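[recover] target loaded
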């Protein structure tokens, strides 16, 4: 009987660990602007599928606005993009 309980505990423990993996992967990409060592991104987190306008703070160039879809959008090299934020409207 104790071997059966141990086997059930092992299986349940493995399924709990497998279900926890996707949650930790989502933590790696924050909502809004973020940058890696080389690139700049904007992650538009939404539950309604809307597209939004963001303002991009460009380095040594005019700032600009662009429309982004849900999910992660590449904005350019980190050396050319300093920041980005929601402009307050959809597109």
């Amino acid at each position: 009987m104790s071997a059966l309980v141990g086997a059930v505990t092992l299986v349940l423990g493995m399924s709990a660990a497998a279900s926890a993996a996707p949650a930790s992967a989502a933590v790696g990409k924050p909502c809004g602007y973020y940058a890696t060592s080389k690139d700049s991104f904007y992650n538009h987190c939404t539950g309604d599928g809307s597209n939004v306008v963001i303002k991009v703070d460009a380095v040594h160039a005019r700032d600009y606005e662009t429309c982004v879809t849900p999910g992660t959008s590449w904005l350019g090299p980190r050396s050319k993009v300093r920041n980005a934020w929601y402009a307050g409207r959809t597109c």
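[recover] notes: Residues 7 and 78 are 50 Å apart (CA to CA).
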